[in-house]
Amino acid sequence: MKIAVVTTVMRVVLGILFLAHGISKFQMGLDGVAGYFQSIGIPGFMAYIVSPIELVGGILLIVGLLTRYVSIVLIIILLGAIFTAKLSLGLLGNGQMAGYEMDLAYIMIALYLAVADRTRWSLDHLLFGRRASRH
Q1: Which among 45, 59, 105, 134 is least surrounded, fewest beta carbons within 10 Å?
Q2: Which residues are 132's β-sheet partners?
């Protein structure tokens, strides 16, 4: 039972964080995000893919729908961010920009969610089965 509670809290918190990142990108304007992406060597069109994935992915994590798949997609986005934008800054950053330490933490949470049993406090459990965590 304790693990199910912790898993649910991890899922909801990670969802809130991704939702906030998605909202932030939309508030900045996707053209601005595309321009930033281009300035660091990422194709600008990726802003129009990453931003909605973060927004919708965050919502899906919060409600616990398609958790495994969303977690895997978010891991791919986070790895992309590390290897295209943050690796050269180092683990802790360069004093002006953050490094990739938070991305690693997010990856570890998402990886856990990708392999964890469904908890009863999710739409995945309600819609797709009663296979709740045994803990």
Answers
A1: 134
A2: 118
Q: Is the dihedral of CA 83, 87, 91, 94 positive or negative?
A: negative
pLDDT per residue as tens digits for the range 11-54: 999 999 999 999 999 999 999 999 999 999 999 999 999 999 99
* Residues near 111 by beta carbon (within 8 Å), at least 6 away in sequence: 71, 75
Contact, 22 vs 56, CB < 8 A? Answer: yes
Amino acid letter, residue 16: I
Q: C-alpha distances in angstroms, 107 versus 14, 35, 64, 117?
A: 10, 26, 17, 17
Tell me the two tokens of residue 49: 């893919």
Please choose, from the candidates 5, 2, 3, the residue with its C-alpha nearest in 3D space to the C-alpha of residue 121: 5
Q: Which residues of 124-133 are buried (b: 16+ CB within 10 A; e: fewer)?
A: bbeeeeeeeb
